[in-house]
Amino acid sequence: MTIDTGSPGLRQAEIRRVRPMDAARMRALRLEMLADAPLAFLETIADAAARSHAEYAARVAYTSAGPNNAQFVADPGRGRLVGHAGGTIAPTEAGLTVIYAVYVTPTWRGSGLLGELIDGVAAWSRSCGRPELLLEVVVGNDRAYRAYQRLGFEDTGVRVPHPNIPAMTELQMRRPA
């Protein structure tokens, strides 16, 4: 699937599952994600930067195929990747895919890329027999909350502690895949 941001021929990105050859570009995007939104992800930029290329390559290879974990990227065809969304199985709920590490680079925000990335995860989830999506948003991240509402996610009322920062809380949102 390809998204056209409205400027004919100027800004298009293919939404696709990550490929093993994307390891270096994924590393660059991951470091950008962590620098831009350090509270939204579950590792520090220092930890990510310290990880070897071989570790990135192994992670990308693992998520490039199979029904348990997938990463989707927005690829404008040259240079850096401009967006990411991952999906993984929920260990305690058979029909559910948990969305993780959603990110759109600042210059592409508002282009529709977020919805296309979520649609990529949703299509993969359905193809694996999981008809529902769940994601978590830090309480107070109103921009992300509203964006996910526009994509059909509903606040479940469930609140959970942030896995790394005990003073913060995350809220769960769900929608059909």
> What's the story with the biggest beta sheet?
8 strands, mixed
Number of helices: 5
Provide the CATH top-level class.
Answer: Alpha Beta
What is the tally of beta strands? 8
Q: Tell me the span between the first and last alpha carbons.
A: 17 Å
Protein name: Ribosomal protein S18 acetylase RimI-like enzyme
GO molecular function, one term: acyltransferase activity, transferring groups other than amino-acyl groups
Organism: Micromonospora taraxaci
InterPro entries: Acyl_CoA_acyltransferase (IPR016181), Bact_Acetyltransf (IPR050832), GNAT_dom (IPR000182)
Question: Quick summary of this structure?
Answer:
This is Ribosomal protein S18 acetylase RimI-like enzyme. By secondary structure, the chain is an alpha+beta fold. Helix content is 31%, strand content 31%.
Break the fold down into its secondary structure elements and pairings:
Elements: E1 2-4, E2 12-17, H1 23-36, H2 45-50, H3 53-63, E3 69-75, E4 83-89, E5 96-104, H4 113-127, E6 132-138, H5 142-150, E7 154-161, E8 169-176
Parallel strand pairs: 5-6
Antiparallel strand pairs: 1-2, 2-3, 3-4, 4-5, 6-8, 7-8
Helix pairs in contact: 1-3
Care to describe what's here?
By secondary structure, the chain is α+β, with helices and mostly antiparallel strands. It has a single domain, classed as Gcn5-related N-acetyltransferase (GNAT) (Aminopeptidase, 3-Layer(aba) Sandwich). It is 31% helix and 31% strand. The chain has 5 helices and 8 strands. The protein has helices at residues 23-36, 45-50, 53-63, 113-127, 142-150; strands spanning 2-4, 12-17, 69-75, 83-89, 96-104, 132-138, 154-161, 169-176. The protein has an 8-stranded mixed sheet with strand order 1-2-3-4-5-6-8-7, with helices on both faces. α1 (23-36) packs across α3. The longest helix has 15 residues, at 113-127. It is globular.
